[in-house]
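Summary for the steering committee. The consortium agreed at its last meeting that each partner would contribute one worked example illustrating the joint modelling workflow. Our contribution is presented below. We chose a case with several input lines so that the handling of multiple components could be demonstrated. No manual editing was applied between input and output; the record is shown as generated.
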Amino acid sequence: MHPIEIFVDAPGKAGCYSGGMCATSVGMANMGLFEGYDTGGFYDEMFLSPGHPRPHYAKLFHRLAAMAPAQFEERRKLADLSFLIQGITFTVYSDGRGTERLFPFDLVPRIIPSSEWARVDRGLSQRVIALNLFLQDVYGQQSIFRDKRIPRSLVYSCPAFRREVVGVEVPRGIHTHICGIDLVRDSKTGEFCVLEDNVRTPSGVSYVLENRLVMTRTLPDAFQAYEVLPVNHYPAELSRILRSLSPRGEGNAQIVLLTPGIYNSAYFEHSFLAQQMGIELVEGRDLIVDGGIVYMKTIRGLTRVDVIYRRVDDEFLDSLTFRPDSILGVPGLMGAYRAGNVALANAVGNGVADDKAIYAYVPDFIRYYLGEEPILRSVETYICARPEDLAYVLDHLKELVVKAVGESGGYGMLIGPASDSAKIEAFRERIQANPRNYIAQPVISLSRVPAYDETEGCVAGRHVDLRPYCLYDGEKVTIVPGGLTRVALTKGSLVVNSSQGGGSKDTWVLRGDE
Amino acid sequence: MLSRIAESLFWLARYIERAEGTSRILDVNYHMLLEQSQQSYRPRWEPLLIMAGEEDRFRKLYDEVNGANVFEFLAFREDNPSSIVQCVAKARENARTIRDRISREMWEDINGLYHMAIRYIPEEEIAAGPHRFCDKIKFGAHRFHGVTDATLPHDEGWEFLRIGRALERAEMTARLVDVQYHNLLDGPPAENALDNHQWMAVLRSVGAYEAYHRQYHPPIEPEKVAEMLILHSQHPHSIRFSATDVQSGLRAVSGSGRGSYANEAERLAGRLVERLNYDRIGEIFHQGLHGYLDDLLRICGLIGEDIARTYFYYAVVA
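What follows is the complete predicted structure of the assembly.
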């Protein structure tokens, strides 16, 4: 029986998943969903001006515009149902119980022409290699301190700096096996710039793969009109890299993915990747360290583990080394890691490289370690730990975005122009109490891409960012073309995080430019 | 295979079976009891609660034992860990922790069953009667078993599912027979027609009504019903059949041959099967049915414990 039948059968809510009979008015014959679309003075990735799509969006525009809103709505609901049945959900804890929610999927794809992507790809590779060299240096020779390119105190005061791994040699010198680097486009020129690096345990790649699958099933005609670069080689490439780290050689490498468990918001991704790579998905309680060797507990006894793709944060990995109250990790794991008996990806201590204050120095890392100019621009950043920056920030709170360096997920943020004076003053006190904990950046008006607005029954411009996923094997960086486009589905919102009303889009990198 | 995965498979199957068994018992008995109540015979809902092992909890939550309350309690209550919806939720929770190890079809099927189950509105179902809800659950469980057999490699993981399902089923049937006999012995002196009615319901609740009639001649006799449910070699709901399934599953995992055993669970299962192979229903009644079933339940409990000891748990290393 097809799952849909189940839902239509269920009494009480019957019909809530059936095809859309949305009472939207059908607009002018040739505009359809795009009736009344307004670019609003932002960089709109689809339109040069209303009704005039950019060349690489033309085919998509004509197909979507020809579609009746009710038909679009029906396809959209089919896509939602597909995500629900597959259990592609994330968990939110706002109600104290942990509720599963769908990560809203917007059916209008985002398209990036080949020539634009080529520059992004080169820029990301350069950045990932520089970040890896920085981590090698900070936990190794520390030449960057001696050459005074970054203050030692700034690095050592990062909450994510791990003294425990200074001097530990990681397999093949790789710290940043998997990076998710958040990009935004300049609101005037459309140029891609780096907003944030994520080199600890970045998540979201499973949505890239699942979005593509659902997209090809839901809008096959539009998809076929383009030559879109594939994304589904990601698990195979990751698996290859993990295998190469095995201390016992690749032949009999036992690789596992360590998850905090089903209550983690990214649990779906953990099980998805384990399944795609054909490796064991384990929780901390499945592993045990004996004599400096990590084993997993099987029904036939203990089996040695060589490589752990861990999706558990540093401080929870080993209660003997880090937080003693952690039950998510494996006591003694760090001992086995230091002894070289087990490899961890990503390496421990990576958080020092994606600290929001360190971010300001990454262009210097590129110049210092690679002798190159950065290909991708960073966003101008004021580091409140510097007295002159602090003074400027406190004077211009109304114009700036202030972020706590240790927070993620869109929390601990002040968006100056959107805040009243009470909120600004409260934030001022927090900054003054602990300047090291804050950085500030000018407000970036993210570029916009059309997205379907359920309440209005039409397509409207919504702000987006992009998180490409970069895999580093010690020699070259492999980037899945595109990545996760996150979209702020709420009108006017700049926050794209899934925990705060964000959704995602399938991202198409074209083989050519149209 | 990771111990935790084996354990989740075992419990996944147990919870599905429990949801299915409770649905069957509720469906059949509810309608039977309603018919009885029209014949100025006070229906006895308590046995349904005893079968579910949740009588005390029910009394804490409700003032009156009536059809609507029993149905709501056994089918929907979130604070009844044995309610059908809670069993489906736990089955799905177990499946979720191992979704990378079961087939995509299995996961989507159980996930769909869960989303269906939580969308029912208890008030509406109470008004409609349990049949449509229970039927959906029953066939949902059947479909899950079908999807499992067709899409999961029949390796040791599949064996743990089989063991969990068979062990749960043996226990459900033992409790069903026990409670019904208890009920008849304790109940008011009833007319034969009513008893007959009740035994028809027992047979129907394990889907054995038609099979009974092929094997035995009317009228329905309690002793023959008991024989069918305890000792039948081929009916998939008999205790003997289920115990044999448990034994085969355990042997497939350990590789033990006939006449040998690798652990305590296998020894107990082997002894249980032999007993059921050679006991006669007359002897069982002679020594006391309740005591006999009680002993079977105790052994099933011990088998479950030893499976956990052998395959699931690791002693803490000092």
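Residues 1-29 of chain A have pLDDT under 50 and may be disordered. Chain A has 14 helices and 25 strands.
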